[in-house]
Amino acid sequence: MKKFMDKDFLLSSVAAQDLFFGYAEKCPIIDYHNHLSAKEIYERRTYENITQLWLEADHYKWRCMRANGVPEKFVTGDASDWEKFFEFAKIMPKLIGSPVYHWAHLELQRYFGIDVPLCESSAKQIWDQTSAMLQGPGFDAVSLLDKAFAKILCTTDDPADSLEWHLKLAAEEDLTFKVLPSFRPDRFLHIDQPAWRNALKQLGEKYGVICDWESLKSALRKSLDFFLSAGCKVTDHGFIHFRYAEGDAAVVMKKALEGDILTETEIAVYQGELLRFLGKEYSDRNMAMQLHLGPIRNNSPELVKVFGADAGGDSVGAATDPFALSAFLGGLEKESALPKTILYNLNPADSAMLSTMAVNFAADGAKVQYGAAWWHHDHIRGISEQLDQLMETGTLAASVGMLTDSRSFTSFARHEYYRRILCDKIGALVESGQYPYDMEVLGSMVEDICWKNADKYFEFGVQGDN
What we know:
Largest sheet: 5 strands, parallel
Helix content: 40-55%
Strand content: 5-15%
CATH architecture of the largest domain: Alpha-Beta Barrel
Strand order of the largest sheet: 4-5-6-9-10
Structural class: alpha/beta
Number of helices: 22
Distance between the termini: 42 Å
Number of strands: 10
């Protein structure tokens, strides 16, 4: 019987251990999609206790608590920080096999040196120990990122954002990492959602009144130029429902502004034409485009009423229409305007489709990629299946690796989780005789997947800085 989450956790062969400890463990982190606050980084936010660090905004943990019957008062409600942590600690032993269980214990080990399993009986000891450490030196937001050996962090930012905190961070000379904005125009794509009108208003206040299709495109161009000047290299799109069609978006937008109800076809035309416009603009500016496909969001009216969006009420949605996605990517390619693109799926039915779709457009430096296991898939099975898809229908060696998609400053242990699974997967092929035990080749491949491919793909310049 192996010891609980020891140094060889998830590394079931000698080859896997050699790859992890010889190569992956030492790699810096390039986290090209997360939801960290640039303001909190700039202000060197500190934490009074582990609840503030772990439970303030982590819907992964919230979902686990709700699934085990914890009342919402102790999840996002007005209970004290200690009460919330204690309720989380009580349900931890029930999370067998959950990535949240593994992540929490990796974070306790790596950031606090605690290897005691978190449960009801250990809760007070861990609360006291972590509280004392968090209130001491070395546990502010910047120090936590330094501990993780982070080099690039790409946050998630609305086109109307002032990027005030990114600009202030860029002016600092003592940071060991870069915090770059990502352009996220979700509110503008979803013309059928209530947030659309407010998005137009906010962007119009910054870049000129938006009253029609042409003024919308003009404002988005100005915003993209501003993001580019602030170091932006990555864009991101989270779809409620991926739609794509060609047509006259100006007519559709006029109808929406007049308050008329749009048909599904009209929504698809507007979204499709806006995506085509954005794709071309990204290509012109050498910005990468990320497409997050397949969720259904804010399912619980009660959670939305009590907390609002991003409360953890999201689940797997419908599979993505491969014909629509192919038409979108192919249309941009025909115009020599296809930007670097990463495809992510929440519905597992999309895995093989997206992996093979990426290869269709992968020429010119693996331009289109099948992205990391995302959200409800970033567990052992989901990560393993994503790696299998890359090996079997794409190419693992060219992958840009992992990201956290997180709001927590200790979530970078997820990169270690991914790297251990990656090394174990490759190690198993070596142990079974499917690949030679060539550490020079394999070690270089692991380093590429862990960070070097991403650095080259996005042109961050980390390797040149070293």
